[in-house]
Structures are given as C-alpha cells and as structure tokens.
Write a structure and sequence with these properties.
- Helix 1 runs antiparallel to helix 4 and helix 5 runs antiparallel to helix 6.
- The strands form two sheets. The protein has a two-stranded antiparallel ribbon. Strands 3-4 form a two-stranded antiparallel ribbon.
- It has nine helices and four strands; from the N terminus they run αααββαββααααα.
- It is globular, with a radius of gyration of 19 Å.
- It is mainly α.
- A hairpin with a 2-residue loop joins strand 1 and strand 2.
- The chain has two domains: 98 residues, no CATH class; 96 residues, no CATH class.
Length: 211
C-alpha cells in the first residue's frame, strides 16, 4: 500500500471518530483504536523524518487493571473502556494531517443531526480548522476539559483560562487579551480553544475570531 492510501485512511478515521463522538458510540472505541494504531505505525514508516508523526503515541482503548490491598483484603480494579480515546484519535489525526500537509475532509452539515458539529475557521488560533459544537456553553467546555487525557495541572490551567475568557467576554471584550487567552488554551488543547472561540463568537466577539 502506498503513502496516499495511508494518508487517506487518516482522513477516513478522522471522520469516523468524529461521528462516533457526536453519536456517543462508545462501542466504537476498540475498533477505531486498533485502526488508528495500525495507521500510525504505517505513517511512521512513510514519514520517518517528520517529528510530529514520529512523536505521536498510540492510543489505548482501555485502562490498565490495578490490584492492591484495601483494609487487609486483596482488591482488583479491572480494565475499563477509555471513552476519551475517541477524542485522542481525532486530535492526533488532525495533528498529523497538519504536519504532513493533508487537508482533512470537511463533513457536510446538511446530513448531520442537530447535535453534530460544524466547521468554524478561527483566525486567532493559527487559522486551523476545528470542529466545534453549534451550541457551546461554559458548562460544555468545562465537561470537555474534564474529559481530556491531560495532567491535572493542565486541566486546571485550561479551566482558569476559560474562566478569564468568560469574564472578558462578558466585560469589555479586550481583543488582545482574548487572543492571548485563546493562544494559551490552544497550546494545551486545540479542541478546547476552538470551543472557547465559538463561545466568544456567540457573544459578539467576531473581530477577535477573524470571522
């Protein structure tokens, strides 16, 4: 199989993981994880000089089982499905696609259910095309932050950025400060930054978003 095939598979998996997230198809975690890891392995062979591709990690579909003693008794927590794996797959597909110059397919909004996502071009976060909910609230962004496979410190930083962004949106809407907050959030999570941007758009911050 040639390079073009594996690149196209990256786009297909991006679409499929997005659909699984939108439709809350948790049973898709295992098969999509297996597909992603296979595609990742092939892309590393095709792009050995690309640091983004080479430094991308595989995705785990389940947590590891944990055993230990509790109150003098042996205890065991079995592996569980990692629903956040779908977000990891989509994010890593997007990251690698950007690294190799591949334009991901834009999903047609006309065939999608009301709770699906639409494409929004956000100029303030390096003009990357992100998928964001049409109905974005502070609470929905907070839930996304909590579900991220990130260290507690990074989640806390994202929450602080969100709180300050919300306060700025409801206040004077200083453009330079809003851009700075989005940029900082984007360094941790492009998905969270995109949803913050759309939250700003809903509240009239169109100049900041470059729309």
């Amino acid at each position: 199989m040639n390079t073009d095939f594996w690149i196209s598979e990256l786009g297909r998996l991006y679409e499929r993981s997005t659909e699984a997230i939108d439709n809350e198809q948790s049973d898709a975690v295992e098969p999509l994880t297996d597909e992603f890891n296979e595609i990742l392995s092939q892309l590393k062979e095709e792009f050995p000089d690309n640091p983004i591709v080479m430094n991308t990690d595989i995705v785990d579909s389940q947590t590891e089982g944990v055993s230990g003693k509790m109150a003098g008794m042996n205890a065991y927590a079995p592996p569980r499905r990692r629903d956040e794996a779908l977000h990891e797959i989509r994010s890593r597909c997007e990251k690698m696609a950007n690294a190799i110059g591949y334009e991901l397919p834009e999903l047609e909004t006309g065939t999608r259910s009301p709770n699906r996502m639409v494409m929004v071009s956000v100029d303030s976060i390096q003009k990357n095309t992100q998928e964001v909910h049409q109905d974005v609230t502070v609470e929905s962004v907070q839930k996304m932050i909590q579900a991220l496979p990130r260290a507690p410190g990074e989640k806390e930083e994202l929450q602080d950025l969100l709180d300050e962004f919300e306060a700025e949106i409801e206040g004077e809407q200083d453009e330079s400060r809003l851009r700075q907050l989005l940029s900082k959030a984007n360094e941790i999570s492009t998905d969270v930054a995109a949803q913050m941007a759309v939250f700003g758009l809903k509240h009239g911050a169109t100049a900041v978003l470059g729309l």
